[in-house]
Amino acid sequence: MSSYHAPGSRALLVERVADVLVPTTPAGAITAFGDGSGITVVGGGTVVTPLLTHGYLWPERALMLHAAGLDKIVDGGRLEVGAMTTLAEVAAIAPEPLASAARIPDYEIRGQGTVGGNISVGGDLQPALVALGAQVRSAGLGGERFEPIEDFLAAGGPRLVLSVAVPRPLGGVYLEQRRRHAHTYPVLTVAVARRGDGIHVAVGRQAERAVAVACRSVERALAGGATPAEAAAAVVEDVQTEDDALASAWYRRRLLPLLVARALTQLEGTR
pTM for the whole thing? Predict the structure, then answer.
């Protein structure tokens, strides 16, 4: 049973009964999730809890993942991170640009928010994982999949993130533009990574609900010998900015090449 005040009322106590599922193994979590229909997944609770508190979410079934064994970390040739690993843990062990992406200013969210939840809601980790060429293991309709994060993000649909495999790059930089208040979302995020096959660039937060995108035009320009500033100018060919509550599309278009150029310049300094 979940009890909370309805929006705009201090006196009205609303009670709804939800079917709460608490699996104790990854296999149990996969079975409970099924095809994802009619179920609300609760990882760290940083997104779901405010929605419940204000009455914007009325779950019929809630899948609680805290005891499902999805918080394992394997540090080998590449980093294998369970979906319930917190952002604070990622910030402490991951390579750049992922470590900086996980080091969000809000200490409470950093300590409670999870990798799987952050990826699923379009969080700050997405561009870093795209730039790194990470792969996501997930479950849902059609069974388990292990695929590049770009394919996972493009597919959409309800999927239960199980783990993320993160290759170790030769260098990486993560930059963002955000307001001073620690509880706000970034206006834009940029991640660049030097891998064995060249420099990879990704952008996030270009719109309220947009997923991170790889910037192929920038990458091709760099491979052709362009300077960071010259290559960064091509980012407008890869990213479609939009207006939302944080910033206008015009502001994002003006800011984006500058942020990408700054990240690429900093990457050169990591050689």
Answer: 0.90
